[in-house]
Amino acid sequence: MSTGFFEGIEKVVYEGPDSTNPMAYRHYNPDEIVMGKRMEEHLRFAVAWWHTFAWEGQDPFGGQTFVRPWHPQDDMERAKLKADVAFELFDILGVPYFCWHDADIRPEQGSFAENLRTLNEITDYIGEKMEAGGPDLLWGTANMFSHRRWMGGASTNPDPDVFAFAAATVKSCMDATHKLGGQNYVLWGGREGYETLLNTDLGAELDHMGRFLNMVVDYKHKIGFKGTILVEPKPQEPSKHQYDFDAATCIGFLRKYGLENEVKLNLEQGHAILAGHSFEHEIAVAAAEGMLGSIDMNRNDYQSGWDTDQFPNNTPEVALAYYHILKSGGFASGGTNFDAKVRRQSIDPADLVAAHVGGMDICARGFKAAAAMLEDGGLETALKERYAGWESAEAQAMLGSDLGSIAQRVLDDNVNPEPRSGRQEILENYVNRFV
């Protein structure tokens, strides 16, 4: 039985690039074969429960602008209505996956026991909808940043009782994710950082965070969860400095605490921008270390100082991101989660649909450009030519040598290299042929 929330909105279908229908896919054809696989299987789109259904339209300077039938989000009846609407949107869009935080799908009850009860109840309800033909769960996670109990952090909190509450919360969310057949479990430390070093024991907090993550991995194996554990980098906001600053910082953290073979990264476009990086940089760093897991697709407003989480609309940026994903072998358990929200003035149900349609189309368009570049091989050929000198036996032997021997060869052979062009503009022009 329909909730009526999306009344009058038909199921979105692929109409091709010449379509002018704002509620149709122009580039996303889930059955199109690209590099030997259906586009849906490559992109693995997911809808985020938090921004799409739980967010009420607040920003740093203003309150609620959305008035939904499930507001206020404070009891199980409205939580179930929200789930009903969610699965209606999943069906309209034809997405294969969704994602959630515990606080998105259940009302906050104050005590852990009550939160656990409502989490179990709502995930049973969601499970029934999945069994009836709904999409699968890409990943679940715990919201350990919104409630006031988390203001000093979760696993990094100076109060051991908060650490304990965090451990119990993550266990419950991992259990729920496992129950629903989730393909990953994500940890984002929204408050795992500091506002001032005046009251922070940074070393102790990092050690506690490392131990916490080891407990998560141990529990994954204990319950037989076959999905991937992911951590999500972000440099700041809400904290002044977060310990999961960027991909490189997270990789160093994982290696320090012996987790490099157990945990991968969930990378977000908006977080990359806040860290002063491009999305393609973060993906390339993770891929180079074999730690690329999944992505949160969105964008930030380059004129704004906070994480605006807008839907993607820049094909060249998206194309280069998917180029590095495809080059590394594509997604395994991960996918493309739209960690994105409509603008606070976009108050109609149709806006939720149109935003996802546009985001999925931009991703499909960029993905096809990335696949075409990879199949053409122009960038890979240029890369191979630039580093061709390292293929010689002499160059490889130098890597196993020492400074003194190398210096002697420079003297004996009168080595005096001339610089060679990096050909950046030529390569940029090459990319522009595809996007």
Automatic annotation (TrEMBL):
Cofactor binding mode and count: Binds 2 magnesium ions per subunit.
Keywords tagged on the record: Carbohydrate metabolism, Cytoplasm, Isomerase, Magnesium, Metal-binding, Xylose metabolism
Catalytic activity: alpha-D-xylose = alpha-D-xylulofuranose
Superkingdom field: Bacteria
Residues the record marks as active site: H101, D104
Localisation per UniProt entry: Cytoplasm
Classification via InterPro entries: Xyl_isomerase-like_sf, Xylose_isom_bac, Xylose_isomerase
Entry's EC annotation: 5.3.1.5
Cofactor(s) named in the record: Mg(2+)
Protein family membership: Belongs to the xylose isomerase family.
Known partners and oligomeric status: Homotetramer.
Name listed for the protein in its UniProt record: Xylose isomerase
Organism annotation: Pelagimonas phthalicica
Chain's gene name: xylA
